[in-house]
Amino acid sequence: MQRPWEVQFWLEDSPGKTLHSKLLNKLTSDILTGRLATGSMLPGTRALAKQLNINRKTVQLVYEELEAQAWLVSKPRSGTFVSETLPEQGLSNQNQALLAPSHHTKLPSELVTMLYQNALSSFDATPVSNDGIPDSRLIPYDLLARTYRRVCIELSRHSNLGYGDPRGTTELRHSIKKMLTDDRFMTCSIEQVCIVRGSQMGIYLTSRILDPNKGAIIMEDLCYSPARAAFESNGFTVLKCKLDQKGLDVEHLKELLNQHKVTGVYVTPHHQYPTTVCLPMDRRLTLLDLSKTYQFAVIEDDYDHEFHYEANPVPPLASLPNAENVIHIGSMSKVFAPGLRLGYMVANQAFIERAAQEIVLIDRQGNTITEHVLADLMESGEVKRHIRRTRKQYEARRNLAAAEFERIFSDKVSFKLPTGGMAIWVDISKLITTEKLSELQGLCHSNKDSTLNTFYTDEQVKPSHIRFGFGALNEAEITQSIETLACTLF
To answer: Which CATH class for the 136-384 domain?
Structure first.
C-alpha cells in the first residue's frame, strides 16, 4: 500500500557526535514522543539514506541496533516497523527526560474534566443520547448535499476560498441580520454581527473579552455548566442568583448587585436552562433597567428561539428598550444538528471587533463554505421551511412525552408543560429514596435522555428533578425511555 506521506527526518538538532549516534538518538526520540507510533512502518534503508544524504550502511547499522534493543521489528518482505512493545525500562536519564517533559501545563478544573469526559462518552452509534438536542435524522441531507456542491463550484470559480473576514462572510452576516430584524424585532447592522462555531464559542469569546478585574459574573442557580466553566477558566468569580417558578429572581439579583462588583449577568431567558421556564416581560425589563443602572453586560444565550410552540415567542432581551449592554448569542445547531457548527453573536460594534480579534488568534475565521451554504438556504427560504416542519414534529414529541409521563407515573411526578424547547423539567421528588438514588444516577449517566438536577449546580442539593430530553427521540424511543425511568423509580 502506498504511504500517504513520506516521513521526514532532520538530524541537525539531534544529540551525538557521529551520524550513527545522531540517527540513533533521533529515531529513539521520535518513538518516545509518539511521532513514530508503535506499529508504524519506517522508510527503507536505501530511501532513508538518500533522504539524509548519508551512507546506507549507517542506516542499516542503526536499524539493527534498535532492533536488538527491541525498539524496532523487522518483518521479512514487509519492512521495518516500530515495536508494539517499547523497552521503556532501563532508559538513560536523557531518554527518561523525553518520557517526562520538563514543561508543565495548567491543570483543568474538576468541572472542565467532567465536561470533557461527558463529551468523549457522547460518541454513540445510537441517536438517542441527548439533553434536549435536535434529532439529526430530520436533517434534509439531499438539500444540504446539493447546496454544498453548488456553493463549492461557485466559490472555486470565483476564487473565493481564501482568507476572509474573521467576523464571518458578509453573506451569512447579512442573512442573520435580516432574520433577527424580521423575526425577532432586533435592530442591528452587519457590523454588529459575528459568526462563531456554535453558541459555546460565543460564550467563551465573551468570557475572554469581559474583564474579571471589573467584577464577578452572575449566573442562574441552576445553569448551563459549560458556560460556567468558560467564565471560571478565564478568571471570573461566578455568583449564583436564585430561580423561582418564573425564572431569574430579580429581587435576589438586586441584592447581589448591591453586595458585589458585577461585570456581567448570564441568562437563558427564552427557555431557562435547565428548567425550561420562560422569563416574563416584567422581569426582562427589570433586568435591562438594572444593567443600565449598574453598568453590567447581559449575556443572553438564546439557544433555541426557533422552537416555541405556544402562540408567539417573547421577544429577545436584545430587542427591548435599554438593551445597549446586551450581548446576544444564538445558534443554528438546534435548527439542524450540533455537528453543523454555526452560531452568531450580536453586540455593539466595538465588542464585535474585540471578538473578531480573539478569533484571529484561535481560528482566523470560520468555515467559509458552510457559511455560504447556510446563507444560501436562509435566502431561499429553506431554513424557514425546515424550521416550520421540524417545529411541528418536536411539538408532537413534547405532547407525547407529557402524555406518557402522565400515563405511566400518574400523580407521582409533576411538571409544567414547556412552551418550547426540546426538554421537560420533571419533579420526581415523591419517588426519590436513598436506595433508588444510585440506580437513578447510573441510569441518567448511561441513557443521557434524563439528567438529574444535581448536574446543573456545584452546590450540595437534594435530587428532586430530571431534565428529560425528547428532541432526539422518536415516538417509540420516548415511550421506551420513560418506561425505563419508571422501572428504576418504582
So the answer is: alpha beta
Residue by residue, pLDDT tens for the chain (490 residues) are: 456 677 888 888 888 888 888 899 999 888 888 888 888 889 989 989 998 989 999 999 999 999 988 899 988 888 899 988 877 544 555 555 554 555 566 778 888 888 877 776 655 444 334 577 888 899 999 999 999 999 999 988 888 788 889 999 999 999 999 999 998 999 999 999 999 998 999 999 999 999 999 999 999 999 999 999 999 999 999 999 999 999 999 999 999 999 999 999 999 999 999 999 999 999 999 999 999 999 999 999 998 888 889 877 789 999 999 999 999 999 988 887 777 889 999 999 999 999 999 999 988 888 889 999 999 999 999 999 999 999 999 999 999 999 999 999 999 999 999 999 999 999 998 888 766 666 666 666 555 667 888 888 888 788 889 999 999 999 999 999 999 989 888 7
Q: What is the CATH number of domain 389-489?
A: 3.90.1150.10
Which ranges of 335-421 would DSSP assign to H, the alpha helix? 349-362, 368-379, 382-409
Angle, to 10 degrees, between the axis of helix 475-489 and the axis of helix 382-409?
Answer: 30
Pick the CATH number of 19-99 from 3.30.1490.20, 1.10.10.10, 3.90.226.10, 3.30.930.10: 1.10.10.10
Helices (H), 210-277: 225-233, 250-259
Fill in the DSSP letter of residue 155. H
Cell of residue 186, nine digits: 432586533
Q: Which long-range contacts (CB under 8 A, 24 or more apart) does 388-392 make?
A: 389/138, 390/134, 390/135, 390/138, 390/307, 390/335, 391/306, 391/307, 391/309
